[in-house]
Amino acid sequence: MNKDQYAVALKNALTEVRNICPDVSHSFIFTKDGMIIASDPETEEKAMEKMIHSFQSIAEKADTIGNLKAFYVDGKKGKVILSNVNDMYLALAASKNADTAYLHSITRVIIPTVLKLLETINPTPIQSTPSRQLVVDTLSGFFIGDSVQIDTELLEEWAKLLDQKGVNEVEIEAFGGKATQCKVKEINDPQLKGKGMVRIPEKVCKTLEVKKGELVKVKPAST
Amino acid sequence: MSAKKKSKEDKDDIEILQEKLQSIKGREGIIGYILRGSSSASIDLKDPTKIINYAILSATAFEAGQDLSATFEIGEVDTILLEGENAKLLSIMVDSNRLSIFMEKNVDHNELCKDLNLT
Question: Is the dihedral of CA A34, A98, A106, A65 positive or negative?
Fold first, then answer.
């Protein structure tokens, strides 16, 4: 998962924590080096920087107790919790009445689980649809239907790339800007196979405002 | 109440607290404590060679607590707890005195506060 997706997912998790527990006034996650990974929308950067500064000043003097794992400040009107989660730190500020058990479940269960999930999930990559420039050949006659024709090899290549059984429809875009979506079949004329052509019914050519011999961009239609 | 009388009561409270600290310092898992007043400090640590390190950590914890209190508007600081891999530090404001108790990780600090009448 890339860093942006990771940060967005964590930001959403922190926002949801705040929605569920309105007693949590601020929350953010940062690394030991002080890099902010994600924060809820309400927390100002200045506050985060101050927190990180306090954390770092303690962390560098905490050898006597081992590496700093958690830091709690209990005030008359609220509390601040800083907790080590994997190789990062989660900081929370909450009102005095905030349920301590719930805060602990956020720092020890919810956020670590979200982080673990994010590290193990591999989202399906967004596949860029392959586009090809093909030469227009017009199809005319009464029984040609509305389908365009393309080389079998190209249709198979697309199907393989998209991990589909086959490609049934394509998007065609003329360089003039007109575009349309049509059903697609294999080129049935052996003389025209393997020549980088797209055979387009005349009616569709009119829609696209293209003529025989011109180039068009063709790609599988998104399903 | 006169200032003199108040001062004497505070002094008595600190003496009582010091007696309690003496009674808990031998407990299993207690590493020691630092009690710092405006003009004096009592320090009792199992490993005296680390006094400076403990004192610096204690002072930094109080300072960070004050800073975070101001940043996140959580009011006057009552307690600060630092948890490390091996040990933890509980810092408490007792009137104008700063008490820091160092203990092993498995010590129940809430129970300790109750025993010291600090809750």
Answer: positive
Task: Indicate the residue among A120, A144, A171 that finishes a domain.
Answer: A120
| A64 domain residue, yes or no | yes
Q: Model pTM? A: 0.67
* Phi, psi (rounded to 5 degrees) for A126: -75, 115
Cβ of A73 and B68 within 8 Å?
yes
Please name the helix (run of DSSP H) or strand (run of DSSP E) that holds residue B114, with its range, or none.
helix B109-115
Domain final residue pick, A90, A120, A150: A120
Q: Which residues contact A108 (CB under 8 A, 6 or more apart)?
A: A83
- Helix (H) or strand (E) run with residue A136 in it: strand A132-139
Query: Who among B57, B79, B87 is closest to A61 (CB)?
Result: B57
Rounded-to-integer distance, Cα A159 and Cα A173, Å: 20
For this complex, say whether ipTM is above 0.90.
no
Q: Which of residues 7-46 of A touch B (CB under 8 A)?
A: 25-26
Give the 3-state secondary structure of residue A123. coil
CB within 8 A of B14, min separation 6: which ones?
Answer: B35, B37, B94, B95, B97
Strand order of the β-sheet with A68-75 is A36-39, A24-31, A88-95, A78-85, A68-75, B77-84, B87-94, B97-104, B30-36, B41-45
Are A112 and A65 contained in the same domain? yes
Each residue's pLDDT tens digit, B21-73 = 888 888 999 999 999 987 888 899 998 898 999 999 999 999 999 999 999 99
Distance separating alpha carbons of residues A146 and B5, to the nearest angstrom? 102
